[in-house]
Structures are given as C-alpha cells and as structure tokens.
Specification:
The protein is of the alpha+beta class and 386 residues long. Helix content is 31%, strand content 25%.
Length: 386
Amino acid sequence: MTEADRSGRSVRVDRHSMLDRHGLDQLIDALRARGYRVVGPTVHDSAIVLDELESGAQLPSGWGVTTGPGIYRLRRRDDAAVFGHSAGPQSWKRFLHPPRQQLWSVDRNGTYEAPAQDERPYAFVGVRGCDLAAIAVLRRVLCPDPSADSPTARRFQHLFLVAAHCTEPGEVCFCASMGTGPAAGSGYDLALTERIDEHGHRFLVDIGTDEGASVLDDVARRPAAVGEVDDARTAVTSAADRMGRTMPEVDLRLLLRSAREADVWEDVAARCLTCGNCTMVCPTCFCTTSEDITDLTGDHAERWQHWSSCFELDFSHLHGGDVRVSGESRYRQWMSHKLGTWFDQFGSSGCVGCGRCIDWCPVGIDITEEAARLSQVLPAETPEDA
C-alpha cells in the first residue's frame, strides 16, 4: 500500500522486514553500488563521529558513550550493538550545510567561476529521531523552494535516509519532551530498530518510501514476525521513559517573551564563556557569514561562506557598534530564538532535544535546567496577553 508524505514522495507503509548483522552490511554495500556517498557513525579520536563509510565494518560495533553536562566519554559495551549510543559531537548538518564552502572565484580579467560541486547524493545511515527532525527543520530553513536548482537544494532532493529508532537514550537526551523521538518520525526511506538477545543480533526494518523498498530488494532479508515487530515497538516506546533530561511542560514560546529581564540570564552569563560550542554542535543552527580572500598578486579573489554564531561579538554588528555586547544578551538571544522566535520564523521549535549543547558546553550549562528555572520564576504569558 502506498501514500504520499509531506514532501510529496511515494511512501510505502505497513511492511516490515528483518535483517541480520550481515544484512546491514549488505544495505550499505547496496547504497554504495547505487552511487550514494554513504555516511554513518564510526569511531575516531575517542568519539563516535559521522564519516563516509566504505563498509559496515566501520560502524561502531560494541561502542557506547557516557554523557553529561560538559561530559562525553567513549566506553565499551558488553554486546556488539552498532547504534547503542546517543548523539555525538557532529550532526548531519555538516554534510547538508557544510561548515565552510566556496561560493565563487573571479580573476582580474573578470573571469567568473562557480566552484566545482560533488553531485553524488548522500545516504545517511543511523539517523536518530531527533536528527531526522533536525534535517526536516534545515530543509524548511535552507530550502523554502524544494525544487530550487542550487547545490543545497539538490543535497536535500536526492538524500536517502536510513533512520535508527532509539532504544537507549543518553543522559542528556530530551527528545521525548520535544516530540521528536525516541521513535523516528516521518521522512525516512528506511528505519531500523536494533535488537540483541538470545535470538541473535537483528534489525527490524520499516519501509518508508518506494525508494527504500527498492534498495531493500538488493539485501538479504526475511519477513518480520508479529512478535518481533511488537518487541521492537515496545523497546522504542519504553525508551521515552528513560530520557536523561526533559523540558518543562510549559509554552516556552510564551515564557521566553516574558523573560527578557529575568535574573536567570545574569547567572548564566557568569558561567557562559560565549565560546559558541553550543551553536557549532547544534543540528539546526544555520547562521553563516562570508569572507573575501585574494592571492598575494591580487589577480585572483574568492568568496567563502562559513558557519557563524550568535555568540560572536560582531555577529550583531551594525554601523556604529555591536548590538549585543554582553554575554548575557548573547545567551538570551540564542535561547530565546531557539525555543521561542523560531516558531515565528519557521513554524516550529529550533530545538530537537538531542542534548549536544549540554554535552559540549565546557562549563556544563544545561538548556533544560535554564528553561525550568525560567518557568519557576516567571509566569508565562497567556495567549490573550501575547
């Protein structure tokens, strides 16, 4: 049976298959054979990072992580799970919205050149529910016209997504309270639920699109039994009750409208280093700046775009000076935009509950704790007041 998802793609529903560990390797091989650049989690530099995969052997088999405010440690698991870890320091954003990219170059004689683009499509393997939601947010922000003929739009147009339903949330995860997990939402081509028990190491596969079904035809698999489907669904559902963090159950958009003069900001500023780590690891922060460079002769110039952060002092610079000079004002701007005014711009929250900003804050500032403090000291505006 088929239907259409929000992007207009043909969606296959009500079909489930089961892969063994070798089948997962075959899935990666099948995607590579179709010309995809397959990206997934792997171990490098004492962290689980995202990188291009040549085979399933590069997946982080038997590795987990211990996380907390300002804490991220790799640890060995007592099984061979490949998706038994929470969000690492990188998000899929770096492939869809590169940290640094050339926009154009020009020579003194006026010769203009667009940069060469690698047009091979991406296939992402192991996308958590929070990150799947983040990709959807970036798609809305960066590609308001999904059919546009631009390098960024084409990355989204040809993207193949293999989601991973989460069964083991981390200590800083709060996707359940943001409505983005632990089950992956819509938008995937295939979704996997990893199970390891006395019956072996296997993956329940949900088929999301006809494209996903076509790729799966190249992989050895078997039909999933009803009991296996129920077991996988129960494992994902129970993960919602084991989140390490939670956002307060208030209307954050209305709360933050009242919070401009709250003492909480001053307390945060006393700890915040304004380093911008939170914006760099965030899967939805999208701000950029550009720079023009020339060679020593002045015969060749290039324009480059790179990520920027609202924690940078000159981010708000206007003629006459910087608008947000204090660390207090910059942290308030980041949090208020992420949880509040993002709704006004893009129709959703800019936070997906992945917890990366908590993990990678050098001083352990916790966005869920700060939101809870605001909810305790300030009454949220009512809709009539807004």
